[in-house]
Each structure stands twice: as C-alpha cells, then as structure tokens.
C-alpha cells in the first residue's frame, strides 16, 4: 500500500490541470508569484492613476469619488494581492527546499489557499463596475464612510473574507511545515533565517487575520442587518472599528516586513561570503518583534482622542520596537563588515533594502512620538514613511529574492547588466517619487485628497515623474525574468553563488519537480550548517 | 536507519493532483459574489448563493471522502499524523482569535464606548440629551425599547447541556482507547443528542427574543453583540455537531482503532473549544 501511495505522489497532471489541481509546492509557489506580479502591475497602474491626478493642482482626470476608489483599491491590492502572496509564494518554493522536506505539510490545502486569491481579486475588480463604484473608504475601511458606500463596499468585504481564509490556511501550512517537516539534524535554531521569519510571520497572520474577518463582518452587519457596532445612535462607536482594525493592522505591517528580513538575511551572507552575524540574536529579535507588534496598534490612532496614559503606552511600546529592528540592521552591517563583498543584483537589492528600510524605520520613529504624530497624522509624511517600508522594504527584498533564486528555479541565468540597471533605475526613481513626500507632509499636504494647494505643485510633479519612471523600470524586471525562463542568457550553474550554503543549493538545477522525497542525508545537513555557522561558534 | 530519522516517515504522504481545492475556490467565489448581490436586492444573488452552497457541499464530501479513504488505507505515517494535530491546533487558535474580535467589541462597548457617550462634556448633551449610559443600553435615537435576555432559564440549561456533552464525549473517547465499540457509539449518540438539544433550545431562545422581548439585531449595541456572539457560537456548535455526526457514522462503520483516530480527536478538540467559548459567553453576555 505504501508503495502505491508513494507512486501516486509522483503523478503529475499536464496542461491546465497541472496548475488548477496542483499539489506540488513549486507549482503552487510559481502560481503565487505570477499572481503577485499581475496584482503588482494592476495596483501599480492605479498608483499611476493617482499620481497622474496629482501632477497638477485642481481636478484633471478623475472625479474625487473615483480617485478615492483608486486610492482604496491600490492599497488593498498591493497589500493583500501583491506583497503578501509574493512572500507566501516564496515560502512555498523555498521552505521545503531549505528544510529538506518533500513538500508543504498540507499539499492540497496549499492549492486551495492559492486558488482563493484570484476570486478575491475578481471581486475587487468587479466592484469597479457595480453601481456606486468600488469601495472608497481607504484600505483601512473606517466607518462611518465604509457604512455609507454602495455594493462595492460589500464586494470588498467578501473579498477580504476570502483573502483572510486564504491567509489563515496558507499560514497554518507554513507553521506546520516548519515545525514538523525539518530534515533530521536541523533543529529550530539551525534553520535558515528565512524559515524563522516565515514561521513568525505565519503565526502573526493566524492570530490577526481572523480579527480582520471579525471587523469587516461587523461592518457588514452594520451596513445591512441593523446592528450598531460602529454607530453612536445605538450606543456603538466608530472608534471601536479602528481599534479592531489596527489590532490586525499593526501585526500586518510586520507580516509584510519580517519575510523581507529573512530574505535579506539569506542574501547578505552569501554575497559577503561570511556567515550571518548574530544568528541567534536575529531569531530573538524576530520573536520580540512578533510579540511587540500586538502592543502598538494605538499609534495609528493618536489623533482620534485617547487618554494620555494610553497614548504614552503605545508611544513607548512603538519606540521599543526600534530596538529589535536595530539589532537586525546592525547584524546585517556586521555581516558585511570585512566580507569579500561582490555586488550582483540580489546583493544590490539587499543593500538597497538595508539603507532605505532604515530610512522608513526612522521616519516611523518620528511618527511614534504622539505630539509629533498629531501634526503629521494623515499627511504625505505618513505616505512617504510606509512606502519606504513597503516598496523599498518589502518589494526590494522580493526583487532581490527573485534574482537570487531564479537560477535555481528556472535553471537559467538572468541578464546581470539588465538586473543591475533595474536596481539602479528603481532605486533612483523610488527616491524621486517618495522622498519629496516627506517635505509635502511636513508642509501639511493631506493624503487621500485629489487636489492640493498651489505651493505643493513642484514636489508633486517631481513625485509623478518619479512614479512613471519607477513603473517603467518594472518592465525591465519582467522582461529579464521572461527571457531568463526562455533560456536566453544560458544555463545556470548548480550553485551560482559561491557563498551560498543552505540546503536549497544542494538540489539539481533547475530544481526537479520533486525534491527531498526522502530526507537529505544528515551529513549533508551538517555540512551546510557548518558552512553557515563557521567563525562564530554557533553550531 | 539513522536514529535521528525516528520521527520521519520514510515517504511523507504527498497527495496526487486534486480537483477539490479548485471546486472550493469557485464555491467561495459564488458565495461571496452571491451574498454581495443578494444583500443589495439583486435576485441573481440568491441563485449564485445556492450554487455556491451546493458546490461547497460537493467539495466537502469529495475532499473529506478522499482524506478518509487515504486514512483508512493507512497512507498516512506518524509524521503526517503530527502535521494533522499541529494543523488542527493552529486552526482552533485562529477560531479563538475570531471570537476575540467580538468579545473585544463587547468589552470595549460596555466599558468604554457607552460610558463615554453618557459622560458629561459634549458627548450626547447637544444631540440626544435623554441618553443615559447603562448596560444593556436602552436609549438612543435608533433604539426601540426591548427587554434584555436573562441568564436564567434556557441559557443556564444550555450551559449544563454543553458541559455534559463534553463529559459524554470524553466517556466515548475512553471507550475508543479501550477498544469498546458499543460504549464509543453510545457516548457519541448521547453527545450528538445533547448538541441537537442545545441548538433547538438556542432557536427557541432566539424566537423568544424576537417575538416576545423585541430583542433584535437592531436593539442597540447590546442586541448587536448579543446576537453576533451567540449566533457565531451557535454556528460553531452546528459545525461541531456535524463533525461529531460524521465521527459517529464512521465509528458505526468500524473506522478508527485504539491508535489511529485523529479525526475523533480533532472533532473532540473542536467540541471542547466550542464549550469553553460558551462558558465565557454565558458569563459575559448573559450573566454579568
């Protein structure tokens, strides 16, 4: 019987069935990454729509209502459609390879997690054409605005339910894979750091995705079934929604940042040709962020009216998060210190990440100060802050990850000069787009408004030009990836990076459909661990 | 074989390609779109809802059917068993967090929102001077007069029923561990009977609330938290009962033995989770 089931695990469907009925972690990872790329361009087009309107003061292209829909959908699609699925896709592809497991723990459920995403995206896009248009309350869906919208709001609510179900199942899969599927000899404190950050991320998501589901369910019943959760007329409170939303929303920020930390912690040691500095402190910092992220949600609500003591609590807790984050940044720098550095594209993106994420971290620290935040709440300073964290942070790490692992996935080289061009172009265009927003915010330009005062014109025009350039740069990326898959730049080596020692580099190139069907030999695991741990006595 | 490989299956079970996830995705799409249309009075929504529900049922029968067949053919080794246990534990954790959102809403409304609305200052004096801060909250521009649900009567009986059902389920579990099929089946029959009784009494309580107490979803923040908390709990009791029915049918068919009965354990964990939520609910929603 065992032999029979073992054989059936080799069965592979072909054509469309391979993707629709997939149970293979690599196929499902690929689906996630392609979906994320499609959503990245969809959300990106919406961002360009926003920047187009903001090129000049006054109303040029869109009705304010439609502008608000663009802002809302851009946020929802980028967060739930692009960044999160891309990280889940990477976890799918890489965790079994890195941990020496034959697949994810629940292969069929894995496919359901993915295939719930296209329906959710469809609901969001359908909402653009229903009467009243898409949700226009911002990605945070604050009532009373979100109670007043039309059918588009309901579609967004159900899309969030689907996305939540997908996230919970995907996260349970990741947690169980990490806890139960590691190769013999790979204890928790010997895992690659990407596995650690994926574990903590998935734990956060299991904890908070249901809370978001609860919040939007209350919105739904307030909208259609007469409840008064968020309506003062019946004793409810719109601020309650903000509390519940941000109880989800702040851990969500780390859900989009922690996997990036993990990726960068894989890339930098490889190209510095040194083991990761302070591995154990990295793990503890990740866990500390995982705990602290539940205790800071109030810093999104300083301007809403909270008792001073509560404000102080959230302010100090927020500042405290800078400590583990600082540990990470110093560890990355210490890893590079006196390394034999080379700057291939993944490394460029990783170093770019460290620089720009730190800028975003510092502007976050500025915003954590309650009296300062009262001034900057809902200004472009906030927009600048979270785009430094999410674009130069999460997105740059994702680009780095794709360039880093693409040779192993596809078996081919990508075009190195084109990759470098993509990095520098993105780096410059990103800063042209978002750096001026700090000044706009400090000068008082509010976010989510399609018009602005005349004195903000020049910086806005600069930002719009930057955004168009940034969008163009991403075409280079897609071109490079597609040409790589079509083998235009030659086959890749088994181990394209000489400083890489984790287990995924011990499978053939391109990674075959099934890998580690029986756990890797313990000697192989130990060899990789020794190479990772050399020089700092952690083994 | 190396000692450190002890816990690892020689070949971890990886299922063949399956249509069920895709069917499930289409089902949830139909349910989501259908619900959005239906609550906005588009008749086609009901059609979508019905087809989504049908697809979901088909998927659940097909998918669980596959899993049961694989389990009964002993395709799963011990490592797969651990995956299932971890997975179920984390799933229940996610359910705990779902209820936490609604309990959080209840606590926030009771101890922060309502007192603040009733406080001096500008809260209500100008807009609704007759507002008085109390719980269950009775006054407000859109609150029709109602009687809150008491803790005596049905809720107390239901507490006893649910606690007893936990005991009978454990009794059935002991029987399974000792290989006594008759006691296993009778324990499960009693548990399912108690579950059905709980649901019937809950329905009677809702009828009482709507028909005689004028307590509806629209009865201010009290009605909202009361019905959403007890309603979602009731829904989970329903799901738990269905799980137990499946376990009962499989026990009657001769599935499970002393060592391989993860499905029983999972259903039991779920049932105890539902039990614990009820206790919290009884204390904070009905009693205090």
Describe the structure.
The complex is a heterodimer of chains A (539) and B (288). Chain A has 539 residues and is mainly α. Chain A has one domain (21-533): Cytochrome c oxidase-like, subunit I domain (Cytochrome C Oxidase, Chain A). Chain A has 19 helices and no strands. In chain A, helix 9 (193-224) packs antiparallel against helix 11, helix 9 (193-224) packs parallel to helix 12 and helix 17 packs antiparallel against helix 18. Chain A is globular and about 65 Å long. With 288 residues, chain B is mainly α. Chain B folds into two domains: 16-75, Helix Hairpins, CATH 1.10.287; 78-287, Four Helix Bundle (Hemerythrin (Met), subunit A). In chain B, 71% of the residues lie in helices and 0% in strands. Chain B is built from seven helices and no strands. Chain B has helices at 20-38, 44-72, 78-118, 154-178, 181-211, 220-253, 262-287. In chain B, helix 1 runs antiparallel to helix 2 (44-72), helix 4 (154-178) packs antiparallel against helix 7 (262-287) and helix 5 runs antiparallel to helix 6. Chain B is globular. Mean pLDDT of chain B is 92; it is low at 1-5. The chains are: A mainly alpha (539), B mainly alpha (288). At the A-B interface, helix 1, helix 2, helix 5, helix 6 and helix 8 of A face helix 1, helix 3 and helix 6 of B. Chain A: The chain crosses the membrane at residues 28-50, 70-93, 114-135, 155-181, 193-220, 240-264, 276-300, 312-334, 346-366, 386-406, 418-439, 459-479. Chain A: This is Cytochrome c oxidase subunit 1. Chain A: It holds the Pfam family COX1.
Kindly list the characteristics that best describe this protein.
heterodimer, A: 539 residues, mainly alpha, Cytochrome C Oxidase, Chain A, 19 helices, 68% helix, globular, B: 288 residues, Helix Hairpins, Four Helix Bundle (Hemerythrin (Met), subunit A), 2 domains, 7 helices, 71% helix, EC 7.1.1.9 (chain B), cytochrome-c oxidase activity (chain B), membrane (chain B), transmembrane helix (chain B), translocase (chain B)
């Amino acid at each position: 019987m065992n032999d029979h089931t073992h054989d059936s695990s080799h069965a592979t469907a072909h054509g469309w069935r391979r993707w629709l009925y997939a149970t293979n972690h690599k196929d499902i990872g690929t689906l996630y990454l392609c979906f994320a790329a499609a959503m990245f361009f969809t959300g990106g087009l919406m961002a360009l729509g926003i920047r187009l309107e903001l090129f000049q003061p006054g109303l040029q292209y869109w009705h304010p209502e439609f502008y608000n829909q663009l802002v809302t959908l851009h946020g929802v699609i980028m967060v739930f459609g692009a960044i999160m699925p891309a990280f889940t896709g990477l976890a799918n592809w890489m965790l079994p390879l890195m941990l020496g497991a034959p697949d994810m723990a629940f292969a069929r459920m894995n496919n359901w997690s993915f295939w719930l995403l296209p329906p959710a995206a469809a609901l969001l896009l359908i909402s653009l054409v229903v009467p009243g248009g898409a949700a226009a309350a911002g990605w945070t869906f604050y009532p009373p605005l979100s109670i007043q919208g039309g059918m588009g709001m309901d579609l967004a609510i159900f899309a969030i339910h689907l996305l939540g179900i997908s996230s919970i199942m995907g996260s349970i899969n990741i947690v169980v894979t990490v806890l139960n599927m590691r190769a013999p000899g790979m204890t928790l404190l010997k895992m690659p750091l990407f596995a650690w950050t994926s574990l903590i991320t998935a734990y956060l998501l299991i904890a908070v995705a249901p809370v978001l589901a609860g919040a939007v369910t209350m919105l739904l019943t307030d909208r259609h079934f007469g409840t008064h959760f968020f309506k003062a007329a019946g004793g409810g409170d719109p601020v309650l929604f903000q509390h519940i939303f941000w109880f989800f929303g702040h851990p969500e920020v780390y859900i989009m940042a922690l996997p990036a930390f993990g990726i960068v912690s894989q890339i930098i040691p490889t190209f510095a040709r040194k083991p990761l500095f302070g591995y154990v402190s990295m793990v503890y910092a990740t866990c500390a962020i995982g705990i602290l992220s539940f205790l800071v949600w109030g810093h999104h609500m300083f301007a809403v009216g909270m008792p001073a003591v509560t404000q102080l609590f959230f302010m100090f807790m927020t500042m405290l998060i800078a400590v583990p984050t600082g540990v990470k940044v110093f560890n990355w720098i210490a890893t590079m210190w006196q390394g034999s550095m080379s700057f291939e594209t993944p490394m460029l993106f990783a170093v770019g990440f460290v620089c720009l994420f730190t800028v975003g971290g510092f502007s976050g620290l500025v915003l954590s100060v309650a009296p300062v935040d009262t001034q900057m709440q809902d200004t472009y300073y906030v927009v600048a802050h979270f785009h430094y964290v999410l674009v130069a942070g999460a997105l740059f790490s994702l680009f780095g990850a794709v360039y880093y692992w693409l040779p192993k996935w596809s078996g081919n080289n990508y075009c190195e000069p084109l990759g470098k061009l993509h990095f520098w172009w993105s780096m410059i265009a990103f800063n042209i787009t978002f750096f001026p927003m700090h000044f706009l915010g400090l000068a008082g330009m509010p976010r989510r408004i399609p018009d602005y005062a005349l004195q903000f014109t020049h910086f806005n025009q600069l930002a719009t030009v930057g955004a168009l350039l940034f969008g163009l740069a991403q075409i280079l990326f897609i071109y490079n990836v597609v040409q790589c898959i079509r083998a235009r730049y030659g086959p890749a080596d088994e181990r394209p990076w000489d400083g890489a020692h984790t287990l995924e580099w011990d499978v053939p190139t391109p990674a075959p459909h099934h890998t580690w069907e029986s756990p890797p030999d313990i000697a192989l695991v130990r060899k990789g661990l020794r190479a990772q741990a050399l020089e700092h006595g952690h083994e | 074989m190396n000692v450190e490989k002890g816990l690892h299956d020689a070949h971890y079970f990886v299922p063949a390609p399956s249509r069920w996830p895709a069917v499930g995705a289409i089902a949830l799409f139909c349910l989501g779109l259908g619900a959005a249309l239906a609550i906005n009075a588009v008749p086609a929504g009901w059609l979508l809802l019905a087809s989504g529900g049908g697809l979901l049922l088909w998927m659940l029968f097909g998918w669980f059917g596959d899993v049961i067949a694989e389990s009964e053919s002993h395709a799963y080794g011990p490592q797969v068993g651990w995956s299932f246990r971890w997975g179920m534990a984390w799933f229940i954790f996610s359910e705990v967090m779902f209820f936490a959102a609604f309990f959080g809403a209840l606590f926030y409304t009771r101890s922060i929102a309502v007192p603040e609305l009733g406080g001096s200052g500008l809260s209500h004096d100008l807009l609704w001077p007759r507002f008085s801060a109390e719980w269950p909250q009775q006054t407000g521009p859109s609150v029709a007069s109602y009687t809150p649900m008491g803790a005596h009567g049905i809720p107390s009986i239901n507490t006893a029923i649910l606690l007893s059902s936990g005991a009978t389920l454990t009794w059935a579990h002991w029987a399974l561990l000792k290989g006594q099929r008759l006691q296993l089946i009778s324990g499960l029959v009693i548990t399912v009977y108690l579950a059905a009784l709980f649901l019937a009494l809950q329905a009677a309580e809702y009828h009482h609330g709507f028909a005689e107490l004028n307590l509806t979803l629209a009865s201010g923040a009290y009605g909202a938290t009361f019905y959403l908390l007890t309603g979602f709990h009731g829904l989970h009791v329903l799901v738990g009962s269905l799980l137990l029915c499946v376990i009962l049918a499989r026990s009657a068919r001769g599935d499970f033995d002393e060592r391989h009965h993860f499905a029983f354990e999972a259903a039991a964990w779920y049932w105890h989770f539902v039990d614990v939520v009820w206790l919290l609910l009884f204390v904070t929603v009905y009693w205090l």
